[in-house]
Design brief:
By secondary structure, the protein is mostly beta strands. The chain contains 1 helix and 4 strands; from the N terminus they run αββββ.
Length: 86
Amino acid sequence: MFDHYRPHAEAVDAGELSPAGASVPCIKSPREVASHVSLVFVAVTPLSGVLTTELGYTVAWNDEHTLGVRFRNGRFIELCGSVLPP
């Protein structure tokens, strides 16, 4: 998730993007991300015909979107920048 946070924070700092809601937190390392996210749903569902687990998180740096972290067979496959709860 740090890889999602960093470009967002840089765009806000450069004035290219206005922060939605509260200000963007200062997160200096991947280890600090956990205190700025909240798990809001867990879904186990077929995506493209393959059973997939998706964890949905709200994040402090972007209150307009829920991030989806997807896994198949216990392996991370992708981070989706905007997902909807099932």
